[in-house]
Structure formats: C-alpha cells, structure tokens
Amino acid sequence: MNWLHTWSGVVLGSLLFAIFWMGTLSVFDKEIDRWMMPATRLAMPAAFSYETMRPAYLAGVAAKAPAVLLLVPNERNPVVTALWRNADGSFTQRLFDPSTGAELPDQGTLAASRFIYPFHYTLNLKMFGVGYWIVGLCGMMMMALCVSGVVIHRKIFADFFTFRPERKVGRATLDLHNVAGVLGLPFHVVISLSGLVILFAIYFPSSIWAVYGKDARLFGREAYGSYARPPAKQAADLISFDAIVARAKASWGQGEPNYLYVFNPGDATVYVQANRASEDVVGNISAVAYIDGVSGDLLAASKPEKPAAVVQRFIAGLHFIQFRHWTLRWLYFGLGLAGCVLIATGLLFWVESRRERHRRLGRSGAGIVEAVTVASVTGILIATCCYMISNRVLPLGVTVLGLDRIAIEIIVFHLAWLATLLHAWVAGRKAWAGQCMVVAVLAASAVLLNALTTGDHLLKAVAHRHSWPVAGIDAMLLLTAVVAALVARRLAGERPPERAAREARA
Amino acid sequence: MIVAFALLMAGWSLIAGSQPKQYGRVFHGGHLSGPLRKAIRGVGVALLLAALAVMARSDSAAFAVLSWVCLLSVSAMLVALILAWLPRWVSARRPQADSVTGRRQRT
C-alpha cells in the first residue's frame, strides 16, 4: 500500500493537481467568464421574457444552421447564448443582451466555460478522446490514493488535527498532507467517484454494449428519451418562445428551462427540445420536453427515470453543482483548494524526504520531480494569471501572425506554463520562492489591468449587485497575491537544508 | 448556517481538546481524566449532530446533508489550523497574564 500510494502519487500527482486546480476554478466558471468578457457584465431584467431570445434564434436561421442551441440566461450567466455547428464542423457562439435581445460584441475568448472547464475533464486533448481517458485514469488513481492513504496512516485518529508548522519542512508538509487528506476525505472520494460516474458511458461501456450492441444512440434514446424528424424544406415561423416554455413547463411541473434546442430552424418541421434546469435540486435531473415549433403541441417528453438512472443523476449532480446554493459553491471551492494542497504537499514530501540522499548519490530523480512539481503547482497558477492578463491586455479583434485573440490567449497560457518548467529546472529549490513572487505580481497586475481596461475597479464592482462576480474574482486574485507574497518571503528567508546541515555540523 | 458553523467549530474544538496530544500541546503537558475526556468528546459529537439538525430546518434534506458534510470537513480543517498556532499564542500571552495576576512575582 505504501508503495502504491507513493508511486501513483509521484507519477500522476502533477496531472491530478492540474485537474483539481481547473476543477476548483470551474466552480466559479461563470464568474470568471464575466471577468474575462466585460460586455457580459449585465444585470438580469426583473421580468425576463423568453421572446427576448428570438434575435439569437434568427441569427442561427440566417447562418442556415441545422440546429440552434439557446442557453437561457440566469443570475450567474446573464446573457442569451446561441451555439450552432457550421457546415465545416466548427462551432459558432454568439451572445445577446437578456433585456433587449441585442447582439453583444464578440468577446474573442474561451474564458472559463470553454477553456478552464473542459481542461478539467479532457485536459483539452480532444484527439481520439485521449484526454477523457487520462483524466479517468487519474480519477481512479485518486480513489486508490485515498484508500491507500488511509491504510498507511499509522495514527489516523491521534493525528486527526495535528499540524505543526514549527517543525522541519518535511514533517510540517506531511502534517498538512494528512490534515488536508483525512479531514477532506469524504469530498476527495466523492468528487473522484462522481467524476467517473458522470462519464460512465466512456469508462464502463461494456454494460451498454451487452444490451444495445454498438448502437449507442439506441441507448441514449431509451435512457434519456429523444425525438427527431427530418426537415420538410418548407419555410415557417417559430411560435412565441414564451408559449413553447409554458407548454414545456406544463409537462414537467415546476422549474424553468436551462436551454432550448431548436431543430430544423426556419422549417415547417421546426421543433424545440426544452430541458428543465437543476437549480433547486442536488441531482442533475433530466426532464426534457419536445414541442412542435409551429403548432405548440407536445411531441414527446422524458419518462420518469428508473432507480439506477436516478442514482447516477444524483451522483453526477453532486459533481456538476448546477444548483443555486452559494454556501455550497464556496464550500466546494474551499474543499477543491484543500485537494490541491493535499496533492501539492504529497509531491513536496516525496521531494523533501529524498532531496539530500539523491544529491549525495548523484541521482537526478528528486531534482526532476521537484522541477515538475514546481511547474505543476506554482507554474499552473502563473499560467492561469498570464491567461487572464492576456485577456485584459489584448484588444478585441486583434490578430498576430494570423492567430486570432482566442488562439493567442491559449498560446500565452501554454508558453507561460512551459517557461515555469524551464525556470524550475534551472533554478532548482529557489524556483519555489521566485515563482511565488511572480504569482503575487501577476495576480495583483490582473486586478489593476481589469480596473484600467474596464473601469470596474473593486470598490465600483462591490457597489453594484450584478458586478459582484467581478468583485469576487478581483478579491480572490488579491488574496492570492497576498498569500503568494507571504509564502515567497517565508521561503526566501529559509536556509537550504544542506547549508543548515553543514552549519549544524560546524 | 452561521449557527450551524459555530456549532461545528465548537464540536470539533471539544473533540480536539479531548485528545491528550492536543490538550498537552495547548496547556503544556496538562492532563484530563478519562471520564472527563469521554464526556467532552460526547458533547463535541452531540454539537456536530446538532449542526445537522439546525441545517435540516432551513434547507431540504439533500442540501442539508451535503452542506453539513462539506462544512464538517471545512470546520475541522479550520480547527486544525487554529490548533497549529494556538500553543504559540497561549505561550506568548502566558508571561503577560502571569505578570498581571502577580503569579510570577510570588513564585
């Protein structure tokens, strides 16, 4: 168990940290979206009419899209979003004001919803779905690490609250690893398990294959209910969105929709898939209604789910946190950070306990793991800050060497991350303090740049209810800057262990 | 929620205080008798459960249990962090407190 815990942690720790870090940020993905897309810092109208979504629908019709996905605006995401797939396979996203229906300028960014969030579960490696499999492997190993960690912990109850920062770095690191791991154990286990359960069709497809053969669509139709009909090639107008939503709500009872998926837009066979939002329940419920877009008749509706599906939806809902519950959102954020601390301290403990011995024996193992650990921990923080800073520095519509704004932001993120790895390799142990100071400077700069480029400084953002997401991100960036500066100062004042050992001998 | 959080902090603090290791760290080698230790631990556990009851009154069952489990972890971590620095704060204050009461002069 000790061997399993040590080596699976060392091999997959860096990837696990990246997954946990991006997952933790994804808890506030819509708030980061508001920060990175200033034109969407809007207030929701007091009485929202679904008919305000018509310009978004018409934009899809004009683009001759075969289907248009319309995301219903809400408190956290106060914009009407229209998405469709183009003939060449690419996707188009357009944003609209929820009060007037007017189109908003292209924000030229993937922000958090389309970059940070998918990074959490695919590492943005889409080819052959390899990202899903790597993240799935990490999720499974995280559960194995939790179980093996409990087994190898010799004094789990006696050391339940033991954290001794005054002890040597190695001991203090292990204490912090134990506290973050043992006290956050329910969260770490549930979040890893639920991550796997969400994508059960990818990771455990054999049961579906056994019943449905290779016809995954048939499984989807039976499990979630679906309806389809071909276009008639005759033009027709869509009835009022308010009428469509009223008919859908009549089929599933209480609750508003979170999206309206319009198939065959502009055609006489147009129909709308309305999906009930899961704002008021923990589970990620599936209540779908198909409404005829011309007559307003109910074409099909999802049936009550079977117990296995209800359990799967509940566990998935635990992970997705689509519910409206701010206390729980903040608790998830805090526990996500505890997960990051758990992984980082595990890696650090491995390095600390081997550094001196590897140096004496001329081995490079501890040095390599330390460089990778620095790049995965402080490096990904620097890359995230650089991503946010590039978003505030680059003007809308800018292109460099044929690269658009979206591509430039992503390249900045990855180049900054690579640079932190090179720096960690060259600087060795000193890289921790150096990179912490860089995090402090970058996080503070991001807040300053947001104020300069948008005028929404922290005090102004706090004063307006609809700007609280921006104020929250600014506050978190400032807190990150302060903590990183304090850590950098503490690390810079520490004597290297080999020097301390020499002084002790003298 | 604030009441539940206060109950959880108090509950974990009592459970931590009932552990000889933590009690000794804060009170410099102080000792609690076995029955007293068990009683303190029992009250601590009761406070943790009371927090669940308080949360269940203001939220639906699923949200209450989920919030309680998450808050249970976060409050326990906060107690661990407070305990990490508490012995130093207690030590730093002790001579001052002693000089105020005049105990140091008498000894």
Q: Give the C-alpha Rg of chain B.
A: 17 Å
Oligomer: heterodimer
Number of domains of chain B: 1
The helix-and-strand class of chain B reads mainly alpha
Regions with little confidence, pLDDT below 50 for 5+ residues of chain B: 97-107
SSE order of chain A in H/E notation?
Answer: HHHEEEHHHHHHHHEEEEHHHHHHHH
Number of strands of chain A: 7
Which class do the helix and strand fractions of chain A yield? alpha+beta
Kindly report the greatest chain-chain contact and the residue count on each side. A-B, 30 and 26 residues
What percentage of the residues of chain B does DSSP assign to strands (E)?
under 5%
Q: What can be said about the biggest beta sheet of chain B?
A: none
What strand line-up does the widest sheet of chain A have? 3-2-1-4-5-6-7
Number of strands of chain B: 0
Number of helices of chain A: 19
Largest sheet of chain A: 7 strands, antiparallel
Helix content of chain B: over 70%
Helix content of chain A: 55-70%
Fold and architecture overview:
The complex is a heterodimer of chains A (506) and B (107). With 506 residues, chain A is α+β, with helices and mostly antiparallel strands. Chain A has 19 helices and 7 strands. Chain A has helices spanning 2-26, 29-36, 54-62, 111-122, 130-152, 169-183, 185-198, 200-203, 206-212, 216-224, 241-252, 307-320, 326-361, 365-393, 405-427, 431-454, 458-463, 468-493, 497-505; strands spanning 67-71, 80-85, 91-96, 257-263, 271-276, 288-292, 298-301. In chain A, strand 1 and strand 2 (80-85) form a beta hairpin. The two termini of chain A are 40 Å apart. The mean pLDDT of chain A is 91. With 107 residues, chain B is mostly helical. Chain B contains 5 helices and no strands. In chain B, helix 1 (2-17) packs antiparallel against helix 3 (34-58) and helix 1 packs across helix 4. At the A-B interface, helix 6, helix 7 and helix 13 of A face helix 1 and helix 4 of B. Chain B: Keywords: Membrane, Transmembrane, Transmembrane helix. Chain B: InterPro entries: DUF3325 (IPR021762). Chain B: This is DUF3325 domain-containing protein. Chain B: The chain crosses the membrane at residues 39-56, 63-86.
